[in-house]
Amino acid sequence: MNETRNVSLPWRRGWAVAGAVSLLLFCAAPGQAQDWARAMFDHTTHDFGVVARGAKVEHRFVVENIYEEDAHIKSVSSSCGCSTPHVSKRTLKTWEKSEILVELDTRGFLGRKDATITVAFDRPFTAEVQLHVHAYIRSDIVVQPGSVEFGSVSQGAGATRELTVSYAGRNDWRIERVEYANPGIEARVVETDRTPGKVSYKLSVKLKKNAPPGYLQDQLVLITNDFNARSSRVPVAVKGLVASALTVRPSPLLMGVTEAGRAVTRNLVVQGRASFRVIAVRSSDERFQCKVPTEAKTVHILPVTFLANNVTPGRLGATICVETDLAGAPPVEVGVSVQIVSPKAE
Predict the structure, then answer these.
(1) Which residue range forms the structural domain that includes residue 199?
(2) What's the rounded Cα separation, in Å, for the pair 248 and 273?
(3) Radius of gyration of the chain measured on its C-alpha atoms
(4) Could you tell me the CA-to-CA distances from 226 to 188, 192, 302 in Å, in that order?
(5) What is this structure's pTM?
(6) Is the residue at 34 inside a domain?
(7) Same domain, 215 and 277
(8) I need a labelling partner for 185 at 20 to 30 A (CA). Which of 161, 166, 208, 301 fits?
(9) b/e map of 244-273 (b: 16 or more CB within 10 Å)?
(10) Distances in whole angstroms, Cα of residue 211 to Cα of each of 243, 253, 334
(11) Are residues 100 and 161 in the same domain?
């Protein structure tokens, strides 16, 4: 006899239901019992393709809690020593996300490798989700270092990194070109040495000065003259952080609660890597006002005032744009909001 129990697993994305919903979970059907956990992953399979020996290779599986109850990842494990999984966050509240990062060992393993990553949940119910990764690690190509690591680079500064690509095998083997889609980087490859059965290249990767701020997690692909179309594409990971030349905090700016007819003021802190002047502060709603300072310094405190005259009670939001003369720093936008309530009775 199938056992059923009534549980409170509220909504999933796309359900036209508000509030808590009671679901019937058929515990006697293992496949159905795992579906709630599998639905939190955007994908469960990844093919690394053909990778070079020594290359730093990793992939992130994103998991998002689409339920009202907290989800908890108890453990992650791999069926193969060629891959190591890590969890960025174990307890997830509604709509919170975590990542299962899978690192591939391209130094200790060669050839075709397949691994199953098991993600075990113990809340709100017990379940397991299996993630699958595949790769072919070439022994004839070595990349040193294993990836392009820019680290933290100030916006507008740019940077260049160089790698060595070595090959042992065919006398006529060559890298024909480098492909990349990110407009913030530029790459070229130059042959540096060739002897019978061996060839070396220098791979230069440039982070452009106009690269936008934020994390850089991308890859470029070395296109070789290998006979097999799959083997002719060798990916190289590119990572870094473009640190904004100008930061504004807090973001968003929450001005709290104020009564209609009154004014409320909160401060914005604007900081740059060098001394600068604030040229203008503009708001999409003129009721949010800010006095622009005239002196030059590395940190400015900007008082933002909301004038709640003739305003209907409710929540109001706008966007504030801060423009400066700091070289290489584009205008910065920050959201601002305030809650208006009716005046208290006399």
Answers:
(1) 147-243
(2) 12
(3) 27
(4) 19, 19, 60
(5) 0.64
(6) no
(7) no
(8) 166
(9) bbbbbeeeebebeebeeeeebebebebbbb
(10) 10, 26, 20
(11) no
Residue type, 69: E
- Burial of 4-23, coded b for 16+ CB within 10 Å and e otherwise, reads eeeeebbbeeeeeeeeeeee
Digit-coded pLDDT (tens) for 254-269 = 988 888 888 899 999 9
Q: 129 is written with which tokens?
A: 């989700």
User: pLDDT tens digits for 305-340?
Assistant: 998 777 788 888 999 999 999 877 788 899 999 998
Both tokens assigned to 97: 């996300």
Residue 292, token pair as written in the block: 């622009």
The first and second tokens of residue 132, run together, are 């699958």
Q: What token pair was written down for 269?
A: 């802190």
CA dist 223 → 49, 105, 143, 188, 205 (Å): 13, 22, 14, 12, 15
The answer to whether residue 18 sits within a structural domain is no
Token readout for 146 is 């294993």
Judgement on whether residues 261 and 181 belong to the same structural domain of the protein: no
